[in-house]
Batch of 2 targets.
Target 1
Amino acid sequence: MNILISNDDGVFAPGILAAKQAVEDLANVTVVAPDENNSSVGRRLTLFKHLKLESCTLDDGSSAYSVSGSPADSVVVGAEYVMDTKPDLVITGINQGVNISSDITSSGTVCAAFEAVSLGIPAIAVSLFMDPKTSYKRDENGEWFVDYDFTLTKKVLHSIVEKIIDDGFPEGVDLFNLNVPSNYESEEVKVTHLSHKMLDKKVIDNTDGEKGELFHYNLEDGQDSEDLIMITPDLVSQYDEGSDGYALLVEKRPSLTPLNVDMTSRDLKDW
C-alpha cells in the first residue's frame, strides 16, 4: 500500500510526524504538506499561480516535501506530481485541535481529505483534541508548553488502516473523520454522526469587556483599534447523543465519523 500524508498545521508540525510513525510499518509513506500553518482555510485551491515545492527533512531524519500552498494544494501536488503512482490512501493530520460537526467544511485537515476523494482516493482525516485542562502545562521554569500526547491517536489510526488493508473501505463511505481526545476515559472507538455545529461565533470590537485581552493581544503599538472587529469562537458544550461531539467531549472517547462527499438531499417529493 502507498499512503500520502498531509495536514494543515504545516510540514514541521509534530502531528504529521506522529501520523507517519503510526502507519509506516504498514505501507510506503510519502509526506507532502504546506510549508506553514494553514488552519481553517477549508478546501482552498491555488490555480494558475506558481507554487514552490521543496524537499525537507522531518525530525526523525526522513524526507518530506513542503508546498507553498494550502492543504488541498498539497494533496493534489503529492498525489499527481510527487508520487510515482497515485496513492491508495490519503491521511490528513494528525491535526492539533478538533474537527467535528458541520463546521468541518472550514477545516483544512478535513477538506484536504475531501480533495483526495475528488481524485478518486479514499481518505482519513485525523485530529487530536487538546484538552485545555490537561494538555497545557508549565515546565520547571514556569514557562507554558503543550503536551502533545499522540499515543492513543496513533494506536487508533494504525488499527483503522490495518482494517482498511484487510477489508477495504466500507461501501458508500468516501472518507473517515477521526477525532481522539487527549484526556480520554475510554479507548474504544465509537462510530458517530456529525453534530449540528462545533463553534458558537461572536463578533467583538475594542469595547468588549469579556474578551478585551484577546482582542488587543496582537495589536501593534500605536495601531488604531476603533475600526477593527474580530470573530471569536467558543466550543459548543451541548451535543446530541450518538454525535461526534458527544463521543469526543462528553463520553471522552475516540469518534469515527464515516462521510460521503455527495451532500445532495434527494427527498423533495412533497415540497
Target 2
Amino acid sequence: MKDNKNAKAMDFDTTYVPKKSNPVVKVVITIILIVWTIINLFPIYFMFTFSLKSNEEIFGTNVAGLPRQWLWSNYSRAMGTGNMGLYFVNSIIVTAASIMISLIAAMMATYAITRIKWRASKLTNAFFMLGLTIPIQASIVPVYVVLSRLHWLNRYSTLIIPYSAFALSMAILICTGFMVEIPYDLDEAARIDGCGLWRTFYQIIIPLMKPAYATIGIYSFLQCWNEFMFANVFISDSAHRTLPVGIQQLSGSYTTDWGPIGAALVIATFPTLIVYVVLCKRIQESFIAGAVKG
C-alpha cells in the first residue's frame, strides 16, 4: 500500500502543470494598472507644468496641457524674490537634525526598554507610546508658552526639538518591532567576549537594525519637511522660515503670480519623491523583514 501511495505521489509530482492564467484577465489587469499609474502620476505632471506657465495659461484654455512658453524664469523668481533658496536650506537643516536626534534617541530608548532588565521598562514604553495619541495641533499652545518663556523662539532649535519629540514615539515603535526579534544570546556572547553595555549596543545591535533606519527616516522626513503649523506659529522672522511657510508667504492679498508659486511647490515636493525613490528598497526590505519576523 505504501509503495502504491508513493507511486501515485510521484505521478502527481511529475504530471502536475500550473494552470495558466487567462490572457483576457492579464490584459484587463494591465489596463487597470496603467490607468491607476496615470492617475497617480498626473498630479506630479500637472504641478511641474503648472510651475512653467503664466497666469494666462493657468486660468485660460491650457490648464492641463504642456506650456506653450516654458517659463523657467519662474524658478529663478521663486528662489530670488520669494527667497525659496534660504527656506530650502532651513528646511534641510531642521529636517536633517530632527531625523538624527529622533533616530539616535529612539535606538537608545528602545535598547534600554527591550534589552536591559529593569522594573519600569514596560511602564516607560507605555509612556512613550502615549505620544502617538497626542495630535500635534493640540500641543501648539503649551509648546509655544514653554518656548517663549525660555526665550527660544526664532531659532533652528525652535522647530528641531518639537519635531524630534513628536517623531520619537513612532520611531520607538518601529525600532521595538525589530529589536525584540534580535536573539538575546548575542548580548550574552558579547559580554562573555568582554563587551560592555555601550559596546554591545554600538557593535552588535546597531548594525542589525539597518532595515529600520529607512522606515524611521522617511517617516520623520515627511513629518518634518511638510509641517506647517509649528513653523508658522513659532517662527516669525524670515531668516529661519521653512519651505511650507515660505510658499504661503508668496500668495499676495490682491494679485498673485501663480507660476513662481508652482515652482516653489516643485522645489518643496520633489525632494520628498527623490528621498522615497532612494530609500524605497530599504523600506521594502524593512517591511519584508518585519513580516518574516512576525
